[in-house]
Amino acid sequence: MKGFLTTRYTAWSFNLAMLLLRLGLGALMLPHGIDKMVKFKEYSGGFMDFLGLGGTVSLALAFFAEFFCSMFLMMGLFTRLTVIPLIIGMIVVVFKAHNAEVFGDGEHGMLFLVGYLAVLLLGPGKASVDGIFYVGKNS
Question: What is the pTM of this model?
Fold first, then answer.
């Protein structure tokens, strides 16, 4: 118990924290992607056209980010590359769809955005596909 209250951390605790962060963010975003897949035809007509490519293309890109990128994030596969579409998606959600109300309607999007930025900066940790394939490369 004494070691639990210290300000130091071990590589093991860092890697466990990154695993929990990746799994949590991915699992919580996945239902949003599944919803877009199931209701694709229903949503495509009125979906926000944030790139000027049309609502259907914007919906497909949001689905890709929220479903496939979340799956890759949970596996820790191409992690830093994978969070880029998720970061872009959350920027659109917070600043375009919710008018930068980070303490109002956009709060959930902002929480996801902060988590994805942390993963981008910290990397996947060793408990990931990336960590398994690149063990020892940067040691």
Answer: 0.87
